[in-house]
Amino acid sequence: MKSILEKVVKMNKKYTKDGKVASYIPELAIADASHLGVCISDGNEMFCSGDSNVKFTLQSVSKSLVLILALMDHGEEKVFEKVGKEPTGDPFNSIIRLETYKKQKPYNPMINAGAIAIAGLVKGETVEVRVQRILKFVQQIAHNAGIGLNQAVFRSERDTGHRNRSIAHFLKDIGNIEGDPDEVLQVYFSQCSIEIDCRDLSNMAMVLALDGKSHITGEQLFPARFAKIAKAYMTTCGMYDGSGEFAIKVGIPAKSGVGGGILAVVPNRYGIGVFGPALDEKGNSIAGLKILETLSEDYNFNIF
Ligand code: DON
Predict the structure, then answer these.
(1) In what order do the strands lie in the sheet with 148-149?
(2) CB 3.0 to 4.6 Å from 47: which of 1, 33, 268, 280, for a disulfide?
(3) CA dihedral defined by 204, 208, 213, 214, rounded to 10 degrees?
(4) What is the pLDDT of residue 90?
(5) What residue's CA is closest to ligand 1, atom 1?
(6) Catalytic residue among 188, 202, 266, 270
C-alpha cells in the first residue's frame, strides 16, 4: 500500500498547479500550493505518503463532526428543526437562498448557513466551554490529544468573515439561532481553525467508516445512527456543488475544507485523509480529488 500511495501522490502532484490556495481568509493565503499528502487507515495499520505531516486547519471538514456532537447533545428531532436534509447545488458560502428557506431553516448542515445553525446547538454555558467540547470531541475521534486551535487562522477569519456574519444574523432574524449570533460565530470560526494533519483526518474517517467505533480502542465513540446521518450528508452535500460529480467519479462519503483537507470514508474498509491546499473553483482540493479518484479506481471504493 505504501508504495502505491507514493506513486499516486507523485502521479497527481501536477494537478496542484491547476488550483489556487484560499485567499478570502488572509491567513490561508500563506499555504504552500504545492503541498500534497495522503494517509489511509485500514483499521489496523496506517499508510501515509507526501506531505502527510504538514498541519492545516479543518475548516468545513469540521461541519460533519460538529453535526455529530449536536446530534449527541440534542437528538435528531431538534437538529432537524434547525437544518433540512436536502442538497442545494449552491456554493458553500451561498446566501442566495436565505430568503427562500422553507420552514425557516437552511437546506443542510454542510453549507455555511446550516453549519452555523448547528454551531448554535453545541451545549455549554460559555463560548469557551462550547469550543473546548468541540476540541475534545475532535481529539477523541482523531485519537490525538495534542490537537489545538490555530489562533492566527481564527483571528483572520473572525476579522474578515463578513459573509458568515450576515448569514448568522439572518438566521437569528428568522428564529433559527436561539442564542447570540456573534457567540455562535465565535464557535463556528473556532471549529474551522482546529489544526490537524492527514493522519488525524484518516483516523477520524476510520471511526466514521466503523459507524462511530474506535478502530484503536474498540470503544463506541458516538452512536452508529449519527455516523450514518453524517455520512449521508457527506455523500449528498459534502463537496458542495461538486458533490454529484464526486459521487460519480469517486463514489464515497467525503467532506472537504478550504484548508485543503478532505476526509473520505470507505464504509467498513478505510479511513482516508487527503491534504492539498490548491483548490478548484468550488473550494475542494484539486489534486486531493484526483488522488481519491485514482484510489477509488484502483481499490474499487465506489459504494454505488
Ligand atoms: O466559513 C468559511 O468560509 C470557512 N471557515 C470554511 C469554508 C470551507 O471550508 C468550505 N469548504 N470547502
Answers:
(1) 56-57, 194-196, 148-149
(2) 1
(3) -20
(4) 81
(5) 112
(6) 188
Annotated catalytic, 107? Answer: no
What are 264's strand-pairing partners? 254, 272
CB 215 within 8 A of CB 43: yes
pLDDT at 89: 81
Question: Would you state the cell numbers that stand for residue 173, as one nine-digit string?
Answer: 432574524
- Residue 133 CB partners (closer than 8 Å, separation 6+): 69, 122, 123, 124
96 and 107 Cβ atoms separated by less than 8 Å: no
Pocket residue to mutate for ligand 1, from 20, 88, 92, 241, most atoms within 8 A of Cβ:
92
* Residues of the chain scoring pLDDT < 50: none
Whole-model pTM: value is 0.97
Residue 258's contacts (CB-CB under 8 Å, 6 or more residues apart) are: 22, 25, 28, 59, 60, 279, 283
Find out whether 106 and 113 touch, Cβ atoms under 8 Å. yes
* Atom number of ligand 1 nearest to Cα 189: 5
- Residues 35 and 275: beta-carbon distance below 8 Å: yes
- Residue 95 CA neighbour count, 13 Å, CB half: 10
Residues β-bridged to residue 274: 38, 262
The per-residue pLDDT for 95 is 80
Q: In the structure grid, which three cell numbers stand for residue 304, read together?
A: 454505488
Distance CA 182, CA 170 (A): 12
User: For residue 220, what is its C-alpha cell?
Assistant: 463506541
Q: What is the pLDDT of residue 260?
A: 98
pLDDT computed for residue 293 by the predictor: 98
Which entry of 15, 233, 240, 270 is annotated as an active-site residue?
A: 240
Whether 63 sits among the annotated catalytic residues: the reply is: yes
Residue with the three cell numbers 449570533: 181
Under DSSP, is residue 108 helix (H, G, I), strand (E, B) or coil? Answer: coil
Helix (H, G, I), strand (E, B) or coil at 96: coil
